[in-house]
Amino acid sequence: MATQPPPEAQVSLRQKIWDHTLGGLIEGLREAKELEVAGRHKDAAVKRASVWYSYRIVPGFLSLAVGEVQRTIRIIGGNIDRLSDGQCDVIGTVMIAHRNFFVAENFLLAGLMKNPVPHSEALLRIGMAEVCCYSGRSDEEVLDYLNGALRLRRDVENEQDNVQALRQFCRVLLRAALLHRRRGMIGLAEDLYTRALMIATDPVTGSAGQKFKVRLGWKFG
After folding, report:
1. What's the rounded Cα separation, in Å, for the pair 180 and 219?
2. N or C end of the chain: which has fewer CB within 10 A?
3. CA 177 to CA 22: how far, in whole Å?
4. What sections of 77-161 are H helices per DSSP?
5. Cα(66)–Cα(48) distance, rounded to whole angstroms?
6. Residue 2: how many CB atoms within 10 A of its CB?
7. Distance in angstroms (rounded) separating the CA atoms of residues 178 and 217
8. How far apart (Å, rounded) are the C-alpha atoms in residues 18 and 51?
């Protein structure tokens, strides 16, 4: 059960971006600029990649995200150790959307080696399930990563900031639902979609924007 967040947490930058508000886009890019000014070029590039990807429904924004990922790779000189597990997830997720599964896999696996918190581990594992599925790997590999992500639900609920953790796990559930639908397992897919929608419509963990994204993802994913 998610804990009621303080009022300021309900309008955090993450939530604004998740809700696709213009304020989220502006604040996210401003935060990236502040990181750049502070000399944290790697962090700024990853932040911009995350922001552009979150608004990828806008034509051209996915290309901007890919450009920031490529910039990040140049900055780190191929040394993935310089990235956090969350940054590895951002890069892996963007490159999955870009259909560059080789690069995505490298960063996702590196993220899993960094002892991530449960919701981050779940995101990295569902990313690997997508890589395996979309690149034609065996069904066994797909399910190994997919089920490994879903088994983390209880650990996610026990995280200190379980509201934010469950919002992230909502993404895992939707992506798992889409993978099962692609595999022809419609019943499993619909069940996972329903679970994602429950988080998106919950008074504590959900929002109108989150519900819209889940429904849109299910319809067009």
Report:
1. 14
2. N
3. 28
4. 85-97, 101-112, 118-134, 139-150, 153-157
5. 10
6. 18
7. 8
8. 10
Tokens 């009621």, located at residue: 4
Domain spans of the chain? 128-221
CA distance 122 to 148: 7
2 vs 61 pLDDT, higher one: 61
Helix (H) or strand (E) holding 209, with range, is helix 208-220
pLDDT (0 to 100) of residue 19: 61
| Total residue length of the chain | 221
C-alpha–C-alpha distance, residues 55 and 59, integer Å: 9
The distance between the two most distant Cα atoms of the chain, rounded to a whole number of Å, is 50
Which amino acid is located at 108 in the chain?
L
Closest CA to 148 of 174, 167, 123: 123
Tens-digit pLDDT profile for residues 90-102: 999 999 999 999 9
User: Locate tokens 């429950």: which residue?
Assistant: 198
Cα–Cα distance between 179 and 113 in angstroms, integer?
24
pLDDT value, residue 210: 85
User: What token pair was written down for 9?
Assistant: 């947490």
